[in-house]
Design brief:
Length: 430
């Protein structure tokens, strides 16, 4: 067997959580391979809504093993909050959630560093989620990091204090007031105590060598789905640098984030919204700063699942979508939030850019300070409520025309059209 992959093709929040949950019954294992609690994956069913940050979205199926892979970074406090919320809804986790010993830990001071670095960047700030993502991956690459496997060792506390000291020295340089800064409304010392208490909860879970676990599972013929976080346009190498996250969000990240060979990558599902959103700073060629953008935000409820920030909204960007499809090797597309476009008589799609007077479909090296204009084609809207549809055959012709229009431009089939946040609001195409 090979590892199938589901990842976002835009700037995140495409609806990955919903679709992983929908696909989970087909998989024996669901694994996160990168990112951390900067992710906010929403799942809705039976009138309940869950937002997961660290825990894979396969957790609602008791028969599926969920793995937090080595490429993920974990904030114990946030992880425990997620667990507690699931427990409140009688969702069992301990029997079917495993954590890689090689996953790195987000320390409380990583979060302070994230805040400091953002502050020091002024107008050029990334718009980070302030979850400590950049500093934690920085320490991983700089070979300073602490990993889940370290927490059971006797010298963990001294390793922790050594790294904390290093962080405090940097914070002092930036004149950061550690003792008065609140993390999730809590002063540092208390937050740190909660962090250590949360480590004890993590110790109750099965801590695994996830690379062996996944590869053995593949040998035994088990089905595995890798769940992406963020989106391809936030990738550390290929996103609109420096306004990106700090991990490889593209398919290649699955190999290093789970320890599988590229030969073992199976089907790649690419998920995109029928329009575009972005939260945080960075270029956004099709952004709508007008009442249309506002309408998309209100109808699509485009407010961050992790930070609550309003998401920037704009029309679908085909050159950007094609770029992500190329980087990810997408086999099948899943188009989300089609229902959000229902009230629009006309829908625009960006099919090329004009950069310094030249027409192109390629993403330039520098998307930030370039004279880039998005060129649009306009198609008819369908002006019909999609949210009650249960099969694609009942969908309005104009919606199918929109899907076919996209398929023709990107040359990859769209196998799913999503028409609402609930599990059941999912239409499958042949
Ligand atoms: P993720 O990070 O990719 O998992 O996406 P988020 O959960 O951050 O954001 C997607 C939002 O859209 C969530 O609030 C979902 O409940 C919602 N959603 C997902 N699919 C659809 C859909 O087809 N229509 C509508 N209206 N909302 C959807
Ligand atoms: P999911 O998995 C949308 C954005 C932040 C910021 C940039 C860097 O829910 O799709 P970071 O905290 O990673 O250093 O922030 O990346 N960002 C996301 N935007 N969805 C996400 O995750 C995101 N994770 C990070 O807004 O612009
Ligand atoms: Mg999200």
């Amino acid at each position: 067997m090979k590892v199938d992959v589901l990842l976002g093709l835009q700037w995140g929040d495409e609806g990955k959580g919903k679709i992983v949950d929908v696909l989970t019954p087909k998989y024996e294992i669901v694994a996160r391979f990168q990112g951390g609690p900067n992710a906010g994956h929403t799942i809705e069913f039976d009138g309940n809504k869950f937002v997961l940050h660290t825990i894979p979205s396969g957790i609602f199926n008791q028969k599926t093993i969920n793995v937090i892979g080595n490429g993920v970074i974990i904030d114990p406090c946030i992880f425990v909050k997620e667990l507690n919320n699931l427990a409140k809804h009688q969702i069992e986790t301990r029997n079917h959630l495993y954590i890689s010993k090689k996953a790195h830990l987000i320390l409380p001071t990583h979060r302070l560093l994230d805040a400091t670095y953002e502050q020091s960047k002024g107008e050029l700030k990334i718009g980070s989620t302030l979850k400590g993502i950049g500093p934690t991956y920085t320490d991983k690459v700089a070979r300073n990091g602490l990993r889940i496997g370290d927490i059971i060792a006797n010298d963990f506390k001294s390793k922790y204090l050594k790294l904390k000291k290093k962080h405090l020295e940097i914070l002092e340089f930036y004149k950061f007031d550690v003792s008065n800064y609140k993390l999730d409304g809590i002063l540092f010392d208390e937050y740190e105590a909660q962090w250590f208490a949360a480590l004890d909860v993590i110790k109750e879970f099965k801590l695994i060598d996830s690379e062996y676990f996944i590869n053995n599972a593949l040998k035994e013929g088990k089905s595995v789905l890798a769940e992406g976080a963020q989106g391809s346009l936030l990738d550390i190498d290929f996103g609109s640098y420096p306004f990106v996250t700090s991990s490889n969000t593209i398919t290649a990240g699955v190999c290093s984030g789970l320890g599988i060979s590229p030969k073992n990558v199976g089907k790649v599902y690419g998920i995109f919204k029928a329009y575009c959103t972005r939260v945080g700073s960075g270029s956004f060629p099709t952004e709508l700063d007008d009442e249309i953008g506002q309408k998309l935000r209100e109808i699509g409820n485009e407010y961050g699942s992790t930070t609550g920030r309003p998401r920037r909204c704009g029309w679908l960007d085909i050159p950007a979508l094609k770029y992500a499809i190329m980087l990810d090797g997408v086999d099948e597309l899943l188009m989300m939030k089609a229902d959000v476009l229902s009230p629009f008589d006309k829908i625009k799609v960006c099919t090329s850019y004009t950069i310094e007077g030249k027409n192109t479909q390629e993403i330039p090296f520098n998307t930030e300070n370039t004279d880039l204009k998005a060129n649009y084609e306009e198609v008819d809207g369908w002006n019909a409520d999609l949210t009650k549809l249960s099969k694609i055959e009942d969908a309005p012709k104009k919606l199918i025309d929109y899907v076919k229009f996209i398929e023709k431009l990107v040359e990859v089939p769209v196998s799913v059209v999503s028409v609402g946040p609930d599990r059941t609001q999912t239409l499958f195409r042949e």
